[in-house]
Amino acid sequence: MNVSVPINYTQAESDLIDRFEQRKADLPGSVAVAALREAAIRQLREKGLPHRRVEEYKYSDLRAFLKSAAPLAEKAKLEDLESILSNQNVFGDLDRYRIVIANGAFVAGLSDVEDLAKEGVTVSSLQDALAGETGAQLLTMPKTGQDDGIVALNTAFVQGGAVIVVREGADLSKPVELIQVATSSGSQAVRNSISVGKGAKLRLLETFVGDTGDGELNTVFDYTIEDGAALATTRLITGKVSTARLFTSIATVGAEAEFKSLGFIAGSRFARNQQFVNFTGENSEAKIYGVTMAGGEDLADQTLIVDHAVPHCNSREFFKTVLDGRSKGVYQGRINVAPHAQKTDGEMMTQALLLSEEAEMANKPELEIFADDVICAHGATSGQIDEDLLFYLRARGIPEDEARTLLVLAFLSEAIEEYDEEDVTEGLEERVRDWLAGH
Amino acid sequence: MLEIKNLHARIAEDETEILNGINLTVNPGEVHAIMGPNGSGKSTLSYILAGKDDYEVTEGEILFNGENMLEMEPDERAAAGMFLAFQYPIEIPGVATMEFLKTAMNAQRKARGEDPLSIPDFMKRVKAAASHLNVSMDMLKRPLNVGFSGGEKKRAEILQMSLLEPKLCVLDETDSGLDIDALRIVSEGVNKLRSPERAMVVITHYQRLLDHIVPDVVHVLSKGRIVKTGDKDLALELEKNGYADYVDTAA
Q1: Do B111 and A397 touch (CB under 8 A)?
Q2: Tell me, what's the ipTM?
Q3: pTM confidence score
Q4: Nearest CA to CA, how far is A353 from chain B (Å)?
Q5: Is A117 inside any structural domain?
């Protein structure tokens, strides 16, 4: 579409454009990176923030939601950072490595850089990499997702992040937690580039702690999974935050590789977890799970586009949503199968449990198939707690509240169990209980 | 133990009258059988005792150890000692059987002001009860009743009954869907729980269950009313002549 009529900017759009003008000189990166930033902000100037008339944002109108845009967060103070880190423990005593991103920037001093190096993993700063010769490539590498409004916004403002390279054949002894922290209010634009070398295995935990105040959170993960490699990534979007939390994954999956992810959203005012998965080699598999909880006036959006560009790849998408209050859940899942991508096996299921009369779920599973020898299926359900199940539990002496908790947990656990990453199961179920007790 | 006085009840949704003045007194240590044709109100009676809110009591009362049972929530009734073995035990995906057993036992203990069971104590109890009922550890690891055969479901119900140690056991057509061997295992499990302090109400269509679980009193229920009460020989008579006589009486 040719946009010729200048749009009337919302307050947030004006704030973002002003913010860019003020900060562009000191945002990290080479001249080529600066040019990419300019192009990205041009997209915002021309199209505005993504809104309901853009198909992908029909149910999650970011433009309407974002009332203003706060300045970018300032550099974190070390003592604040240490105090926040010592007070949080999302995964209990699970043995893991840690990589810290604070107020938008990679913090080497608090990350397990040396220990990870011994396991064959190099961790470095994205803000430094952006200044180098290949800096621009870091931003343009992913084949899909580049036109997306949230990714463009991220490109315009990206402050930093981690570049993680797992050496060919490395098989880490424990998972790696990539923890993003806000020590003070302010917006954050983070990009993490993760590449898992041939035959290597990585389990990643992506968490966020702190409070960005009225600053939006925009984090992009770019995964490259080489031939024969495996990546399992558990993303937690939790805690009470009053503004938008925008998470994007762009995964490029090579041959005979495995990509597994679980996106866990609990109680964000406006959260969008969007994933672009691209198969570039044959005989690979993607298993994408979603566990979503929303209450009050929350909006929680899980959006997914899987591109089967090559034959003989399988994908499984299984999303579970629990909604209470006047919240709104969104699931958009699209499986594209290219004409020559024969023998594709895609199976997508989205299920919602509505705990209140006013909660609303938009389920939009889509299949776009151009090959003629494929197995693809999709399904969507929305329902309430089964009164017969509730009665059965109560007839055994379990009080109503506890019985409801048990049933909600059972509903969501189906996705957690199928994701089958045993060392995070307990932590995730604990977070479900937290949400049920406190939302 | 249980006193039902002039109980009238209907389906809440469409106001269909189901029970039309039931009177029944069950004392500790007694086993009562309730027999009757389809649609006579047997299952409705069991659901009302357990507290299912699909039914509305329009008249009469139920006293459980002197307390007004109709004012208690289903979980309060359970904690007070009421247990219904369901005719169709429900499958609950995602809830592991062991976890369910522990939650139910401890919820009842909590309601009675008792301490929760320690894990070893809980495991010991479950293992002992499971072995008597031929319930495998594999079954206990699965989600509750999911993928269980008809016989396994009924055995799981009796397992719950043994572990929860209720005062009043109501068995709603526990024999339905059981083959002869399963019937024997389930009946033995039930008989093991017979005691001078515990009462049982056994609801069934067929006399054959009562060969295994021998009742003290047999009632015939028809059109929502008890139309005949006798001893165990009444069941034999019904087996021979059918319900026709009593259905007519009630009409």
Answers
A1: yes
A2: 0.95
A3: 0.89
A4: 14
A5: yes
